[in-house]
Amino acid sequence: MKLATALSQRADLQRKLSELNTRLNNNAKAQDGEAPSEDPKTLLKELDGTLLELEKLIAAINLTNSRTEVDGTTLTELLAKRDILGKRVQIMRGFLDAASSKTDRYSKTEIRVVSTVDVSSMQKKVDAVSKELRELDEKIQELNWTTELI
Fold it and tell me: What pairs with residue 73 in β-bridges?
């Protein structure tokens, strides 16, 4: 099985767990003398099976990520770098939005507010980090489709 397939299965299992959580909560109580819509014992067994399957899949994914290397860098390290680049872009864009927003003045006597950074230069930096993030993400996606799950 390819790593990408395992990642897709993991997402499906996580959705299933969310649905099971809702179904369990919906059937936690019933009116006296009435049966719940679904048997909680059956749902709990399904929950246990799904959790066990997800645990095994996550372990295999993590093992694969830690043992798959590209140019001396593990897939785990690439994923961490992608996460950090994503955070950097998010924070830099927020800062750039704040720095580039205009403050209206209604008269010359009002205090003038100016940006603390060169917005154009900062935009170029954000664009460069965004490009690095896109390229890294493409590399990771390629690895996901070409790497066999351990």
Answer: 70
